[in-house]
Amino acid sequence: MPDTPFLTIDLDRVRANYRAVRAALPEATVYYAVKANPAPEIIRLLVSLSYGNTIKKAADVAFAHRLGVRRFSFDAADDLENLGRLAPDSVAACRFLVDAPASGTPFGRKFGCAPDEAIRLLSRAADLGLRPALCFHVGSQQCDIRAWTTGMTQASGIAKALSSKGIRLESINLGGGFPVAYRDPVPSLAECAAAIRSGLDPSLPPLAIEPGRVIVASAGTIHASVVSVAERDRRWVYLDIGRYNGLAETENEYIPYRLTTSHPSTPDGPVVIAGPTCDGDDVLYQHTPYRLPLALSAGDRVDIHDVGAYTASYSSVSFNGIPPLPTYFTGAPTGTFAGRHVLAELHGIEPAALDDLDFLSETLQRTLKQAGATVCDVVSKRFEPQGVTVLALLAESHASVHTYPERGSMFVDVFTCGPHADPAEAVRLLGEALSASRVVSQTVHRGQS
Ligand SMILES: Cc1ncc(COP(=O)(O)O)c(C=O)c1O
What we know:
Blueprint: E1 6-10, H1 11-24, E2 28-30, H2 40-45, H3 58-66, E3 71-74, H4 77-86, E4 91-95, H5 115-127, E5 131-135, H6 146-163, E6 172-173, H7 189-198, E7 207-209, H8 213-216, E8 220-231, E9 235-239, E10 258-261, E11 268-270, E12 272-274, E13 283-285, E14 291-293, E15 301-305, E16 327-330, E17 338-347, H9 351-354, H10 357-370, E18 375-382, E19 388-394, E20 397-404, E21 409-417, H11 423-433, E22 438-447
Parallel strand pairs: 1-16, 2-7, 3-4, 4-5, 5-6, 6-7, 9-12
Antiparallel strand pairs: 1-8, 8-9, 8-15, 10-15, 11-14, 12-13, 17-21, 17-22, 18-19, 19-20, 20-21
Helix pairs in contact: 3-4, 5-6, 6-7, 10-11
Bound molecules: pyridoxal-5'-phosphate.
């Protein structure tokens, strides 16, 4: 068992949530909002290609377009001009501000233009040769389903105005916002879908949605521990997880997570719950009523539920010396006896890099993780007069490198079982990280493919 705090994600649950969303709204194309949890393991399950952030640099647009992204959203004239210049032939979805009740984590007025402005901007998008589309977002953790009906009604007004100018919209993306039952009941997906349908009219183009929270939240559990308990004005319980290493959505106590402890069914009392850093804001709940067992003390385990969304991705790199929240995955398909073994030789590498044990260990770990592998342990050894071996133990099997600095070359061997890690991608990334001028590799498929 790793040290706390850590996050576990059940990939089977992610898949089931995605299917539930599709079943609730089969008429909509479903994208995934990567910001909720960008782990490669999840992305591989839910591959999609859209750039839903209205706030982006021109260089980001050019980069995404080079990678093949052809759907962008925008809400301002400058960004639209960038899309016209740097993302030709793309779908340009104008985000308008929905006149909706506040959600659990409100966007305020940060995003979205007024409907009149949307009509002007989309006319300009058509002039720029882009494919005009619409989008809105009712605010994440939206518990008032009337928000979707309002959004659809506003969208239909915009679509009709554009249609009278001969401009046809390609699609309308309703974003996310579908709520999760953290401690209290929330409207079901079916109720949200019904609210969306009640605003549908023939002027509207095909629907798309891009949920995040409802796909990944319930798949995640944070395993944390009590650091200390102090009796002050009230009983303060300090955990090893807080605002800065994963629970950012406790800002303003927006999201009241459900907690369980290693003392179930024992007498409890009211508490203030705080995180571990030296920051006064790192208090999770002091206004929202929480009760925890009176027997709780330092070292006891506390599990925090439905935390697969907006946690690991919010965790700071090292605020107050606390490392980012690690994630472990469960629920990978089992029972398939199959793996891929990539055997490679990398040439033309800087000799000093090939003799640098720490650099090679770190680079091997990083590239394996980027390729979807779960690195459990790494051992390495430097030999005299030169050369290094690094061996990584993976949840999917193993990987190794063995270097020849005097020749600028190394052998690489990556074997992974199951579909989640991609050993060829790991080798490619490693070659890129070491600026290898030549990579020779072969893949052996083992077991049943
Ligand atoms: C543009 C956009 N699309 C989709 C989402 C996902 O929303 P949610 O996690 O509420 O489903 C967000 C998140 O706030 C967003 O900003």
